[in-house]
## 1
Amino acid sequence: GAARAGRSWRQKLSFLPLLLRLIAIALVVTALARPQKGLEQVRDSNEGIAIEMVVDRSGSMEQQMVFDGQRMNRLEVVKKVFAQFVLGNGEKLKGRPNDLIGLVSVAHYPESTCPLTLAHGTLPRFIETVQLPRTRDEDGTAIGDAIALAAAHSEQAEDEMKRQSPDRADSYKPKRKVTILLTDGEQTRGKRTPPAGDALAKDWDSKIYLSRV
């Protein structure tokens, strides 16, 4: 379940900064979805991964930290790392040009911030719309519901391709469906528990990765 997966990733990656953890997840996802022979890398523009990024925007994400030599809150750090994960940073992260990327933000309840898309140039604008809660009633962390919503979007990846790019829809097939959860806390809100959300994701053949900020 999600709890087991979360503990496993925390144990293995908790000592790493967020950016390095995402690099590690990116490598794992790529290795699982695109087997390689020796050092040869094969990229098929008609095959990729459907990746739903779930960003925690709860009040605790206002806590300050240092990233790239600058002091900023955790949500600002996640926004920067999200952009680097999607578009690349010229170093370890090469970007995800062949992958469908979508964005779900979550506080008291999850929201579909951006549908799965190959038009990655639009994603930085969407991530900038994600803001900390404005009221106490808006605050909280509905992790289970967010996982379930992200998995539901991944399940509709082929339909989303038909809607956005009908000329490519018949040839483009996601090889794997993945949800990456970026959070600094535990479940405090929501109808579904994280294990319940994880079980639903498994029913739809979507794998969950957790990265703590």
## 2
Amino acid sequence: RNQTKLRAEYFQGIFDAIEKGLSEGHQIGKRVLLPSSHTGSRRYVIQNYHDGIAICRVYGPPDLFITYTCNPKWPEITLATLEGQAPNDRPDIIVRVFHMMLQRLLNDIRSDSIFGPTLAILYSIEFQKRGLPHVHILVWLGNT
């Protein structure tokens, strides 16, 4: 519904098709642009980047940079895997436990009891080559 509002004139699809010798409309096709609400799309990444830069503009540089990595030897993971299975055989369990532990960590940071009052938190979850998730967290503190 919002395709007309998106800046499609920046895309050179029609000019590229003409240069290739395609002159019929059915040969060219219709380009559909994914909105920024579509997770993982180019516009989604750019939107999140701009949001992060806006947070830095308001609060200044972050006070803390925290990296938190999933440990496959957490009891929650080892108890949920069957005998003979490696933790990497159950990525569903790893992701669920990591998400629970991450929420616990973020709640501890927000509770103002560890680092003091927090103004903002920004984080990005990534997956290592081994398949384990980890997160990079930026924290802006209130009284620094």
## 3
Amino acid sequence: MSRTSTEKTVVRSAALVRRAVNGPAMGARWSATFFAPVGFDDSRLAAALAAAIEEVEAQMSSWRSTSDLARLNRAPIGVWVDLPAGLFEVLEAALTIGRQSDGAFDVGVGDLVGAFGFGGGSHTPDAARIAATIGRPSFEPPKTLELDRTNRRARRLAPMTVDLSGIAKGYGVDRMAAVMGDFAVASFLVGIDGEMRAGGRKPDGSAWAVGQERPDRGARDLLGVIELTQAAVATSGTYRHVAEIGGRTVSHTMDPATGRPLEGDLAQVTVVAESCMLADAWATALLVARLDAGLALARRRGLTAFLVDTAGRSHTVSADA
């Protein structure tokens, strides 16, 4: 007697086992939870995931003096620098989102990041150089960062330090998802710190659940749960990564408009998108844009976003609305 399609699905699902691997990445941890057949070699997959993340760090790290990003930042003004494919893709996406967000997202804030004690390098720019970054987006004429897609290269046209901390981690998660595909793993949840991407559904048909943290510096409580299927999620906030400067607690997120750490009316922004690179960058952009402008921007760009203001109130924009 032949099995029904439902019975066949149950048989296939029963052969899949839930597994998990993890390791260090970008100052945090990477993780992968997935379903695979009995006998699947977890160690090979874990090694491939670690290698993919190492490749991203080797290209985009602000902390490594040997990274391709550091090489770009050290190059003389006006000199073209050949780039690996991954870094070029991220820079191209960053400049596009910079334009689409009216400058709220800007990778040209590396000098500000360093000046306020968050950067990976030892260089601390003087006040004049910090002031020079204000009102000069990295994507607008006179451009400070120019890309040449044909030859896959970039050059800085004015003194600036490119910082990809608002987008590189998301790209790293996307690279992890690609590795899962290489290993024919269709049901997975991969992530670096709080940036996550889901592939498929669980064998029982349910979506992957990702907890949304309440923006509270003193505790780690759950604000809600986001269900993902073939999508990614990323969160940016002003409450977790901070520093004490002049007796004040300041956020690691820089405001390109003021040249200082962000002081706005939003505590946290979570974005769901088709890729984690886009979710990561847009979460930062909406946070910097502040509540009213961020809500309008999310609607205009067709984003799904969850914004929590500094009073603890939640605001939601749905791409389906």
